[in-house]
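Holo prediction. Input below; ligand is D-malate.
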Amino acid sequence: MAHINHHYLKLQAGYLFPEIARRVSVFSREHPDARVIRMGIGDVTEPLPPAVIEAMRCAVDEMARGDTFKGYGPEQGYPWLREAIAEHDYAARGCRVDADEIFISDGSKCDTGNILDILAPTTTSGNVIAVQDPVYPVYVDTNVMAGNTGPADERGEYAGLVYLRADRDNGFVAPLPDRPVDVVYLCFPNNPTGAVADRDTLARWVEYAREHDALILFDAAYEAFITDPTIPHSIYEIDGAREVAIEFRSFSKNAGFTGTRCAFTVVPRELTGTTPDGEQVDLHRLWLRRQTTRFNGVSYIVQRGAEAVYSADGREQTAGLIRFYLENARLIREALSEQGLEVYGGVNAPYVWVRTPEGEDSWGFFDRLLDEAHVVGTPGSGFGRAGEGYFRLSAFNSRANVEEALKRIGRMNLAVGRA
Ligand code: MLT
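Structure of the complex:
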């Protein structure tokens, strides 16, 4: 008899984005002539930068010749990509991250889930895990799958997790926990709210983690969208963070790699965790062991593409993509505020976080937007209890689609919820 991982049965109905896709496909079946515009999932629409394409073409040619063909590469990534990242993403910002502390992977979503492999289950260790609310659902669901939570309550909150509420009153920047936690997931610029954490906020988190011997899992997948020069791009810009934080980064959103797949995770050598006997063990060693056992690396061709993001042309072209999506975000923000909605985010992030019209909940607004404007967004409640009454629009789209969507939304009465 094969016993299943019964923790999966605790998960809520479906992962948020497949659930949205299901509703949209029902709508499209019933309204075959409607041209639906998708501003739900944060998936890029613009082609890869030409410098990336060119580098990948050359890499394909290398794979075609016996003298340059590559088989397995290093599981943790080729040194030239790790060095380019260390130089441009870290040294250039004045923070010390060594190339061998950077692990290339096929996505931050995978890594933020996989990292649990090197942490003890909460049931045996008593680890207390905190997430912001609203939260990128992957952090929560992977903990449920790992058996780190109890069942969900009627509001969808899992027993055992500490939820840190981010709302209008705190500028969508969650407060420090009011009890000791051992692991905390932070995401800045934030998905879904688009909020950013300033230097003081991050410094308080680092101080908290040092004081409580806690581990910060810092998701910086959207750092390239930061426009405010005072906002840190990396947790390692804060003194002392190397001893308490793992950082996740991705090429998905800055360079359009959502379908190409390349990301990286930084595990500094100073970072340690505790064994049941109280011994300190370095997490770098464990993550290296995990990756070399379970992962065979990102393809050579894709890593060459990622390396080209750091070339002079690549940097300029990537900056152009980011400007393009941020301009979409500006158009969305301005159009919706003109219609009287309360709008957040979208300045240092590709997500616009909108308060739903008076009297309408998140899924109600989702359905109305789909029915009346044939536009898909993401209901805030899908990101947690504190997301109820909000709605996320993604700025990842073509300009034509954004303009058309805003025109259609402009014809709706958004002063109050559906009658
Ligand atoms: C989102 O829409 O939140 C993102 O696309 C999720 C992801 O990057 O996995």
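Residues 41-43, 109, 191 surround D-malate (CB under 6 Å). That is the main takeaway for now.
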